[in-house]
Amino acid sequence: MEVLIRDNAETGCVLGARIIARVVRENPAAVLGLATGRTPLRLYQELIRLHRDEGLDFSRVTTFNLDEYVGLPATHPQSYRHFMQENLFRHLNLDPARTHVPDGTAADLPTECRAYEQKIAAAGGIDLQLLGLGRNGHIGFNEPTGSLRSRTWVKILSEQTLRDNSAVFGSVEAMPRHALTMGIGTILDARQILLLAFGPTKVPAVAQMIEGPLTAMCPGSALQLHPRAMVILEEESATGLRSTAHYRWIDRHKLAWQRYD
Ligand code: F6R
């Protein structure tokens, strides 16, 4: 796992956008795995800026989002399809037919999950998967104890996750209890993984993910198995780590082609 600690979330997000931009420049038909939530918002703004000001071309890019709430149609303001539409898709020159978010309204959810896996495979797999990190260590909606080899499936949201995501719904009671999410096995199949985690609430989960044991109790720790996983932190979210001097040393001694900023 490559740990990159930046001064603040702003510079971390700009770096994250550069990493994604390089993937798209090197392969204009890249397949991107995307996340929702507060963490990637600034990164998405930077991608939009790169598209607008520097001509970053998304016309041949395919996207697969990690997850969607069960029962929320694409038009629902709290659905992840709506979130992506508003915060990214409508600002880029993506082909709408190549943007994928699991369908939380599917009548047969297990079939929808299998179909999602098949679509990812048919697109040639995911080149880069963007991730945030839950306060309880979740990635996607893979909550603690979920199988480290899982494929896209239906998950029951933990009480912690419901509380963390309830602000936009007004209350926990108003929230769906279930979500469709790529499994941890699906995520690990991506050729490159980029996880962002900022702020004080993520300190314990960041420390467990990077320096703790590989365990289903911290789904993010599964990234320890991935040959090309990058984690972007800022000073605050890195405060629970023991080996920050080592991570900074590695960062400083990277070869020119390994650098993004
Ligand atoms: C979002 C997702 C979640 C979030 C995580 C962090 O699609 O799958 O795992 O990345 O809950 O959320 P924020 O960024 O809001 O702190």
Provide an overview of this structure.
By secondary structure, the protein is an alpha/beta fold. It has a single domain (2-258), classed as 3-Layer(aba) Sandwich (Rossmann fold), CATH 3.40.50. The chain is built from 8 helices and 10 strands. It has helices at residues 9-26, 41-54, 80-87, 109-122, 159-165, 184-188, 203-211, 244-252; strands at 2-6, 31-34, 62-65, 67-69, 99-100, 128-131, 153-156, 178-181, 192-197, 229-234. Strands 1-10-9-6-2-3-5 form a 7-stranded parallel β-sheet. Strands 4-8-7 form a 3-stranded antiparallel β-sheet, covered by helices on one side. Helix 2 links the parallel strand 2 (31-34) and strand 3 (62-65). Helix 1 (9-26) crosses helix 2 (41-54). The structure holds fructose -6-phosphate. Fructose -6-phosphate binds at residues 35-39, 66-67, 132-134, 138-141.
By CATH, the architecture is named 3-Layer(aba) Sandwich
Query: How many angstroms separate the termini?
Result: 18 Å
The assembly state of the depicted protein chains is single chain
State the shape.
globular
Please state the CA-atom Rg, rounded to the nearest Å. Answer: 17 Å
Helix content percent band: 25-40%
Structural class: alpha/beta
Into how many domains do the coordinates divide? 1
Distinct ligands, ions and cofactors found in the model = fructose -6-phosphate
Average of per-residue pLDDT values = 97
Strand order, sheet with most strands: 1-10-9-6-2-3-5
